[in-house]
Amino acid sequence: MKPKTLFDKIWDAHVVKQVEDGPDVFYIDRHFIHEVTSPVAFLGLEKRGLSVSRPEKTTATPDHNVPTINQHMSIVDELSRHQVEKLRVNCEKHGITHYGLGTDGHGVVHIIGPEMGLTQPGMTIVCGDSHTSTHGAFGAIAFGIGTSEVEMVLASQCIMQPKPKKMRISVDGELKKGVTAKDIVLYIISKISTSGGTGHFIEFAGSTIRNLSMEGRMTVCNMSIESGARGGMIAPDESTFEYIKGREFAPKGKEWDKAVAGWKELKSDEGAVFDSEFQFDAADIEPMVTYGTNPGMGMGISDNIPEGKELVGNDKLSFEKSLKYMGYSAGDSLKGKKVDYVFLGSCTNGRIEDFRVFANFVKGKKKADNVVAWLVPGSKQVENQIIAEGLNKVFKEAGFELRQPGCSACLAMNDDKVPEGNYSVSTSNRNFEGRQGPGARTMLASPLTAAAAAITGVITDPRELLD
Predict the structure, then answer these.
(1) Coil, helix or strand for 268?
(2) Is 282 contained in some domain?
(3) What is the pLDDT of residue 1?
(4) How many Å apart are CA 387 and CA 391, to the nearest integer?
(5) How many other CB atoms are there within 10 angstroms of residue 259's CB atom?
(6) Do 377 and 249 fall into the same domain?
(7) Rg of the chain's alpha carbons, rounded to an integer?
């Protein structure tokens, strides 16, 4: 029997029908929806006189447009308020489980799925949001879809999808002090570029990846799409099973044993062929920071901005335009550059592990006066855990304020916008022009590097302040 990749095993098991010279009709196990990409999809169903095919397979929560303070009050922005309310009404009408603002299940859609045990190995998972790739950390095929496809899944629990090519990226060795999962993925994207993964689904492998916590794995898979890939995944192992066990929607009793037995088979066979492969050494990675306007424009924090002399044509123009927007010059060191805002949160780094790292770093220190810091948990569960562990007291003593769950300053669709011209060190996933607000300048980094910037008021190598 021909050796198969993990991706092939899951994909092939979910193909309902193969269209000759066309896409596959592909079954979806779990569908997540939020308030931004679902209203038009529900409207489409109504116009066609259709109901939701399998409402128990869909889970909803508002996250993109929600405020992160005073969530008990009516949302001020009219469009946001309408979208959040419309999600509630549509879910009520179609019998879909909905975790609204203030409820224990509320949060960023890609954070509540794993923490509830809804995300499981071997699944196919979609959402009208590009960072659905996060769920691939559990050995699932997970990817973002458009609004018309959201409607398709609601109507049929299937989607029309061409099968991507396969890529394996291996990282081996031990991470140096102060280097995190976020640094790994920023390093990878800086090496293969924001188009290096185009047309592929990435399997992340190697000893470094296996040694990451589930939260770290989610960060890596979350940003796989920033390389142009369709999604990213990591083979499940004992860390995966331990994370899922006992969660609300995880299998129980004999069903648990049966599920784990099946999950253990979810790995790429020896000799399985990938369309392309990359290998990296963990020893080469240091804390990363971006200097430009795409996630591929990243560098080690002790490096200088590249000169870009090898670039020609549009690539050169794009590089120069990016630096002009950021107010930086080729050859600059970023260390010591001023910081106005620090954002800890998003589906990339809004989990409890990220807040523990940040709290450990700022404990006994004080926030710089020139920095506005937004600490936004990814879910109500994360918020409750922060409070239960007393991390909120650590933050308060250091001059930080904990906000309420939501996507927040990741994408400026809510009130949390970085003002024009201001510099933000952000733990989110994108640094495009205006991503965090019109004219905002974003440097992507890990929670550790963000914490160092929040304390010093400038871009700082966190290793210099670690005990």
Answers:
(1) coil
(2) no
(3) 85
(4) 6
(5) 18
(6) no
(7) 21
102 C-beta neighbours (distance < 10 Å), count: 11
Residue 283 covered by a domain:
no
As a whole number of angstroms, the distance between CA 439 and CA 432 comes to: 10
359 contacts 395 by C-beta, under 8 angstroms = yes
Among residues 416, 294, 399, the alpha carbon closest in space to that of 343 is found at: 416
Domain C-terminal end among 276, 309, 339? 276
CA–CA distance from 194 to each of 166, 189, 238, 317 (Å)?
17, 6, 32, 17
- Please tell me whether residues 339 and 230 are part of one structural domain: no
Q: In this structure, are strands 30-33 and 288-290 parallel, antiparallel, or unpaired? A: unpaired
User: What pLDDT sits at residue 371?
Assistant: 98
Residue 340 lies in a domain: yes
Residue range 221-272, pLDDT digits in tens: 999 999 999 999 999 999 999 999 999 999 999 999 999 999 999 999 999 9
Question: Which residue type, as a one-letter code, is found at position 16?
Answer: V
Among 380, 346, 345, CA closest to 115: 380
φ, ψ at 72 (rounded to 5°): -80, -10
Is residue 247 situated within a structural domain? Answer: yes
Q: What domain range is 175 assigned to?
A: 6-276
Residues (pLDDT < 50) of the chain are none
Q: What pairs with residue 18 in β-bridges?
A: 24
Q: Which residues pair with 32 in a beta bridge?
A: 59, 127
Quick one: tokens of 8?
């092939």
Structure tokens at 175: 């991470």
- DSSP secondary structure letter of residue 191: H
Q: How many domains does the chain have?
A: 2
